[in-house]
Amino acid sequence: MFITFEGLDFCGKSTQVKILIDYLEKEGNKVTLLREPGGTIISEKIRDIVLDKINLEMCIETELLLFYASRAQLVNEKILPELKKGNIVISDRFFDSSTAYQGYGRGLSINFINELNKFVVGKSIPNITFFLDLSIEEIEKRKALLKKENFDRIERSVIDFWHKVREGYLNIAKNEERFCVIDASKSIEEIHKIILSKIISLRKEAIK
Question: For a tag site, which of 20, 47, 162, 194 has the least CB within 10 Å?
Answer without folding.
Answer: 194
